[in-house]
Design a protein that fits this description.
- The longest helix has 43 residues, at 222-264.
- 76% of the residues lie in helices and 0% in strands.
- The chain is built from twelve helices and no strands.
- The chain has helices spanning 2-6, 10-16, 19-33, 38-44, 58-87, 96-108, 111-122, 126-150, 154-162, 167-197, 210-218, 222-264.
- By secondary structure, the chain is an all-alpha fold.
- It is flat, with a radius of gyration of 24 Å.
- The termini are far apart.
- 32% of the residues are buried.
Length: 270
């Protein structure tokens, strides 16, 4: 097997050992071809009259799930990064302990409870699910922002100020680029959490990959639960691998910028 792989072109060998294309292929194949697996599920669960979920297409559920996770993650990233920046500045530093306590409370509050409280007030559908997901996704992003900014050495800020950069230029040109990998790590954690948590949105009428899971649990249909759970897991794996690629590229860009900056400095003693 290894000799056969060695005979492949280098690019093809690299692609064969990369889990991302395989994960994406599995996700697409199962999303579009789940009805084809009806004989398999019928054999595994012979007591079920309908072994494959058919109330909605899995392609529509995947797209709806991605839309809900994407919107909630974008809102959580915007609010979390801005608040994280604010409590790391002199104007908001006094509020940092209170902010961290509120974040911990929001994470400890179960999303199901948020849905139970929000649905009777604002109605069923995507809106209460969006509120719950934003609240649940704030903590990793805000913590990543604060940790990333804290990791910037004080000497680096002093050098930036010595070069004549004002506070906004120091933040934009020095602190945020250095903190970006840690901030992105927080966004990555938040998105992965939201992909799994979004399944409960189907309890308030939102169309997500949680629909077959909820219907399966209420109707004792284990096949539905497996079909929804496998697609949610594949979606989380694909997103995690994509974020890993993005972090790797960001780190490479940082090293390149640092090398170019060092090369531009005048020689010591020159």
């Amino acid at each position: 097997m290894s000799r056969a792989l060695e005979a492949w072109p280098k690019g093809l060998r690299h692609a064969a050992g990369d889990p991302l294309p395989w994960s994406l292929a599995a996700l697409v194949a199962l999303t579009l071809g789940m009805p084809v697996l009806r004989p398999l599920f019928a054999a595994l669960f012979p007591e079920l009259g309908r072994p494959v979920y058919q109330q909605d297409s899995f392609a529509a559920l995947v797209l709806a799930h991605l839309a809900l996770v994407g919107l909630s993650s974008a809102l959580a990233a915007t609010v979390g990064i801005l608040l994280g920046l604010w409590v790391c500045r002199p104007a908001g530093r006094a509020f940092r302990p209170l902010f961290e306590a509120l974040l911990a409370m929001s994470q400890a509050f179960p999303p199901v409870a948020v849905l139970a409280v929000a649905a009777p007030i604002i109605g069923f559908g995507e809106t209460p699910a969006l509120i719950a997901l934003v609240l649940y996704g704030l903590l990793p992003i805000a913590q990543g922002t604060m940790a990333g900014l804290d990791s910037v050495p004080a000497a680096t800020r002093e050098v930036a100020q010595g070069l004549g950069l004002d506070p906004w230029q120091t933040l934009y040109k020095v602190e945020l680029p250095l903190a970006a990998p840690v901030i992105l790590s927080g966004v990555r954690t938040s998105v992965i959490i939201n992909i799994g948590t979004a399944t409960i949105a189907s309890t308030v009428g939102a169309k997500t990959l949680g629909s077959p899971i909820i219907v399966g649990l209420s109707g004792f249909n284990t096949a539905y639960v497996i079909q929804g759970a496998v697609l949610v897991a594949l979606l989380a794996i694909c997103c995690d691998l994509l974020f890993e690629r993005l972090q790797r590229r960001l780190s490479a860009w940082r090293y390149q910028e640092a090398a170019e900056g060092a090369a531009a400095l005048p020689p010591v003693g020159g």
